[in-house]
Amino acid sequence: MSEVPASPAFIPHMPRDTGDTWKLPSRGTVGITCLIMAEASLFIIFVVAYVFYLGKSLTGPAPRDVLELPVFTTICLLSSSLTVHFAVEMLHKGSRRLCSLWLAATVLLGTIFLAGTAHEWYHLIVHDHLTIRTNLFGTTFYSLVGLHATHVAIGLFMLSLALLFSLRGQLTHEHSEKLKVLSFYWHFVDAVWVIVFLVVYVFGR
Amino acid sequence: MATQIPIPQAPTTAILDETLEPAGPGLWLEVLHGWVTTVDHKRLGLMYIGYALLFLVIAGFEALMMRVQLAIPNNTFVSPQTFNRLFTMHGTTMVFFVGMPILFGFGNYLIPLMIGARDMAFPRLNAFSFWISAFGGLLLYFSFLGGDGLYGAGTAPDVGWFAYAPLTAKAFSPGHSTDYWTLSILLSGIGSVGVALNIVATTICMRCPGMKLTRMPLLVWLYFVDACMVLVVVSPLTAAQIMLMLDRYLGSHFFDTQAGGSAVLWMHFFWIFGHPEVYVLVLPAFAFANEIIPVFSRKAIFGYPAMVAATVAIGFISLSVWAHHMFTVGLGAGANTFFTLATMIIAVPTGIKIFNWLATLWGGKIHFTAAMMFAVGFLFQFLIAGLTGIMLSAAPFDWQLGNSYFVVAHFHYVLVGAILFMIFSAFYYWYPKMTGRMLNETLGKWHFWIFLIGFHLTFDFMHIPGLMGMPRRVYTYEADRGWAIWNMIVSSGAIFQAIGTLLFVYNLVWSYFKGPVAGPDPWDAWTLEWATSSPPAVYNFAVVPSVQSRRPLWDLKHPEDPDSNYEM
Predict the structure, then answer these.
(1) How many domains does chain B have?
(2) Which of A11, A27, A57, A130 to probe by mutation at the B interface, max B CB count within 10 Å?
(3) Would you say residue B568 lies in a domain?
(4) Residue A4 and residue B8: Cβ atoms within 8 Å?
(5) Nearest-CA distance from B542 to chain A in Å?
């Protein structure tokens, strides 16, 4: 039992014949996948609350009275998934100017979406007198759409940072992995919007 | 004091280089600065553990106060209001600020060492997670000072650890105590998700060459499954707390029955978190058992693949049992049947684990060190806890005993009899690695026997007033109910547990200065953490290890008969 090889110390260490073939997934991809799992489970609860309270409001207004399909802003947000994908591709290929261009397009599209939400909320609050206190519809609508809009805002902030770095020439090929991780987050935010759009504006109306 | 294990005299080598450590103790401020700004997984792990021990003592003290109050009928030791605060703070603290951080602490410390890595995958996120959780704990206890809201009502949260609606509505919980409760749990949840993400990424991406998933120590496997569960079950609680904050501050109606909201929805959201949480807490205890029982039986673990499969099965099934906390709500026959069956099915993978541990012990050369004694205690007590769990999973039985002391006895049997016993065991086993010194074995055995007696006095006899109809959370009871003698026994057991815990704390401190020097591998163990010095250098391993089997140190010590010969 005390017959222990003296060197190198106690650490089991073989000549690195396996070293080159030993490849593990990247931390960034795994990390963002975990974050997306946690976020997805957060959104599921808000979606469940929305569906559970559908039609249970004691007073008006009801969804069909006030909601309109946000078709244009939805198209903007979903196409921003494509533009961010192109930005990652361009950076990966080393084309930094095109990367800046696609990033700028993504930020623009995301901003249009947020502005659309702001306009919708303004209309709902001022003209339709629907606030988070009005009824269960207001409670669940503003919290679900608001939670999503918060995620869009966070994504926009990070994309704007990336755009800033890109414009200053600080975003290089070695950052393409990190930009890809950010793009995963953005794709997730878009995917959540598909669910919200279907639940709130299509089936729930 | 003398261990029964011969300590192999490992040749110390040049790579265990101490010169990177700062010379001399340095200024206190520098030491403090070093700890506050650290991103090292070992220091963060120790900070998690220390912080959890602090809260363990506080929450244990709260439990003692409750037991004094309940020891005799018609007692007036604390007021009803204080009693409500005591059980709320005791439960919340124990789950979120003792159980979670102590398990994350051990995980943080051990996982990189066991897989031969330099650190966790995201060291700075690791530090962030610790400090945000620590801030949550401080916020909870700050409520004693800051919870005195506009109406002067309440100084600490008094809504119970599961805080059923509508008790948490502004009308019934004026002031800010409930807000502190909500915020502290929100923050702790963010911290937990951060650690879980880190553990998953570390396990997948940081393993040393040769450490395939099928060769990972079972501890790492169980922490991996545990972290995956944390990722999906903590968020529902976070969502529910956000809704509660919206209700309280913006006047929304999620849990407001006056406006058509549902109090039962809160129960669902809470227990979707709450029941898997029990498994989140118990899986690390299983993880410790998987490492400790084989080493002190001098045998490799029995049924490694079955252990992994059972763990994954527990992870999945535990997501579909939450409503067994809600049988008394009246869910209807369909839901009752489903949740009864799902709950009973979880006994199957759990049983597989118990049989595997028994098979590991069978025919082994068992060394009854303090760590092993706690592990054997765990085996018996976890079995009993599981059996009362199956009793309660039957909906009609639960209708009789829901919210009684029988339930309290059942889940304390799990939390104390299984989880706390394994945590103590883990301390005796890994303290030498963390500090470089052995814990005193004699004191450890005294600790075990005194704590064991106290545990059984308290939690065996707590079942009986429950069967006689004593509800939980009552601040006192009449003398003619026949509960008095049982409550007296239960309370006297608490004193034994307090003495045992004090012995343990004394042992921790005394051994840090006076304990025998441990050396790198005091237990003649087989996993990688024992391959480096005790305590490990900042960089963990001077060379990147590479492994050929599940027990790399066995291979090293027995080159004539390595495990890799038997791998499929």
Answers:
(1) 1
(2) A11
(3) no
(4) yes
(5) 8
